[in-house]
Amino acid sequence: MSRVERIARVISRIALGCAALALLASLAAIAYSVIRRYLFGAPVAWTDELVGYLLVASVMLAAADALFAGEHIAVDLLTDRLRARGKRIAFLFGLAAVAASALLLVFEGVGTVQFSRQVGLRSNGDLALPLWLPQLLVPIGALLLLFAAVVLFVVVARGGVVPHERTTPVQGIE
After folding, report:
1. What angle do CA 82, 86, 1 make, to 5 degrees?
2. Hey, is 130 helix, strand or coil?
3. Per the domain annotation, does 132 fall within a domain?
4. What percentage of the chain exceeds 90 in pLDDT?
5. Is the pLDDT assigned to residue 165 strictly greater than 70?
6. 72 confidence band (pLDDT: 50, 70, 90)
7. Where are the alpha helices (DSSP H) in 41-131?
8. Nearest-10 crossing angle of helices 137-157, 84-119
9. DSSP SS3 for 120
10. Cα(165)–Cα(75) distance, rounded to whole angstroms?
11. Residue 24 domain boundaries
12. Residue 171 falls inside a structural domain
């Protein structure tokens, strides 16, 4: 494993840990809200907004690790029928598509964050957060995904192993 690949995998694991913390924070916020509402009759208005932001954090920060683990969204209806070389080519094409999408998200996300900061946009909810803070999760997560896609592309193009090959079909889809 090359040094760049190791660095990319470590960064994606750290981001995955942050995504897990975001999910735990969501769970805690929801539990707090439920307890306040049903035990004390005092609902908390800001919970839904916070949980929405934490959900974006968990998805965006976990995407790179999912790609490295071979668990990124894929449709293998046709690729399952290909030989090894065809699967490799299809996988490389998929990685190129992921990289292109991630690059678009980085550029558009940065533009959105800059605009929100420039005009001082705040959320409409009870938290009234500066919107650029949760919006920043999109370009950060997309940059991590782009890095992972490029690293995986190079590894697989040089003859490395495709991250996963399902050996058993998904139940009910055959």
Report:
1. 120
2. strand
3. yes
4. 70
5. no
6. confident
7. 47-68, 84-119
8. 160
9. coil
10. 13
11. 3-157
12. no
Question: Looking at the predicted structure, is the pLDDT value of residue 110 above 80?
Answer: yes
Rg, Å, the chain Cα set: 20
Whether 164 maps to a domain, the answer reads no
Adjacent-strand bridge partners of 130: 122
Give the confidence band of 170 by pLDDT, cuts at 50, 70, 90: low
Geometric angle at alpha carbon 99, from 94 and 104, rounded to 5°: 125
| 129 and 52 Cβ atoms separated by less than 8 Å | no
Q: Distance from CA of residue 2 to its chain's centroid? A: 23
Q: 22-68: per-residue pLDDT in tens?
A: 999 999 999 999 999 999 999 898 999 999 999 999 999 999 999 99
**130 phi, psi to nearest 5 deg:** -60, 125
Question: Over the range 49-86, which residues count as b (16 or more CB within 10 Å of their CB) and which as e?
Answer: bbbebbebbbbbbbbbbbbbeeebeeeeeebeeeeeee
pLDDT tens by residue, 142-158: 999 999 999 999 998 98
CB 125 within 8 A of CB 49: yes
Task: Kindly state whether residue 173 falls inside one of the protein's structural domains.
Answer: no
Domain count, the chain: 1
Number of H helices, E strands in the chain: 5, 0
